Amino acid sequence: MTALAVPAILLTAAACGSEDSSSSGPLATVSGKAGEQPTIELDEDAGVTETSVEVLSEGDGAQVKQGDMLGMDVIGKTPGGDSDLVNTWMTQDGQSTTSDDPGAPPRPQLVTQAGVESALPEAITEPLIGTPVGSRVKIEGTAGDLLGDTAEAVGLDKSQGLVWVFDINVAIDPTTTAEGEQAPVEEGLPEVVAEGQEPATITIPEGDAPTELREQTLIEGDGAEVLAGHTLFVQYTGVNWDGGEKFDSSWDRDGGASFQIGGGQVISGWDETLVGKHVGDRVLMVLPPDKAYGEAGNASIPGNSTLVFVVDIIGVA
């Protein structure tokens, strides 16, 4: 959707020179169990010439498939690097994202697609295909092999080695839809027809748009409750109440959409409505301008627009 979701984590620049090493062997030794921050000991003198993959501990979930949307904890390092390339276990100012408080929000996840160019390059995630959810996996290789041209963009020499440690927490099939009999829409709300892996057809009723947020759960799922701080996986379609024209749908792209909910990463109507819903729900939302893009609008969305969304919640992490 236009400016709806933001990338969970971006590679950070690393001021590192190229490796000059005569030794060859593992770049890193990893200890700790999946679900807890790993301890990674780097060999500053080790070199690497080809990609290697090691499943450090095997989970008992479903196997990751090509194109699955993955929610993962991850650390990316390079020997001699001044900082981690990626680290979901820590904030940018060095604070732990793990809390013993049962009421604390879930730790943000890195979200990418398996074996597809997305938040991470295809070469990094392709080795995860076939690995069970719940596994911890170490991948080592050169920056050139694993990042391609992105290596130079983040200040890495293509010949230097990289270490990635992934905890695969969830794998979501992006073709998933909410299943079950859809409830009739309440009076004054748009009609919704959603069939298969296509954008929903949303028919705007006659009359003025609601001046307050309206929402209805059209299909009730029986999955996990959506909590503030969860990384949410959805398929959605959005139309403008004025004219009923579709301005965006995740079905028009390869893969669904993902974002952290309840923390201001999305328009306020989404945060307000989707926290407390459940995986498997189909939710209809009518958002007045103050719950959407306000007076300014956004890209193809004019200012002061009332927006209508149909959202299938397909997973959380």
Explain this structure:
It catalyses: [protein]-peptidylproline (omega=180) = [protein]-peptidylproline (omega=0). GO terms for molecular function: peptidyl-prolyl cis-trans isomerase activity. There is one protein chain. With 317 residues, this protein is mainly β. The chain folds into 2 domains: 23-172, Chitinase A, domain 3 (Roll), CATH 3.10.50; 191-316, Chitinase A, domain 3. Helices cover 6% and strands 31% of the residues. The strands form 5 sheets. Strands 5, 6, 7, 8, 9 and 10 form a 6-stranded antiparallel β-sheet that branches. Strands 13, 14, 15, 16, 17 and 18 form a 6-stranded antiparallel β-sheet that branches. Mean pLDDT is 89; it is low at 1-10 and 13-22.
Short description:
The chain has helices at 122-125, 143-147, 150-153, 268-274; strands at residues 23-24, 28-31, 39-42, 46-47, 52-57, 69-77, 86-87, 110-113, 136-142, 161-172, 191-193, 201-203, 214-219, 231-240, 246-249, 257-260, 282-287, 307-316. It is mainly beta and 317 residues long.
* CATH fold-type name of the largest domain: Chitinase A, domain 3
Q: What's the alpha carbon Rg, rounded to whole Å?
A: 22 Å
SSE class: mainly beta
- Whole-number tally of structural domains: 2
The total of beta strands comes to 18
Q: Determine the oligomeric state from the structure.
A: single chain
Low-confidence stretches are: 1-10, 13-22
How does the overall form come out from the CA principal axes? Answer: elongated
SSE series: EEEEEEEEHEHHEEEEEEEHEE
Helix content: under 10%
Mean pLDDT: 89
CATH class of the largest domain: Alpha Beta
CATH architecture of the largest domain: Roll
| Major β-sheet profile | 6 strands, antiparallel
Please, how many helices?
Answer: 4
Strand percentage, roughly? 25-35%
Protein name: Peptidyl-prolyl cis-trans isomerase
EC number: 5.2.1.8
Family: Belongs to the FKBP-type PPIase family.
Keywords: Isomerase, Rotamase
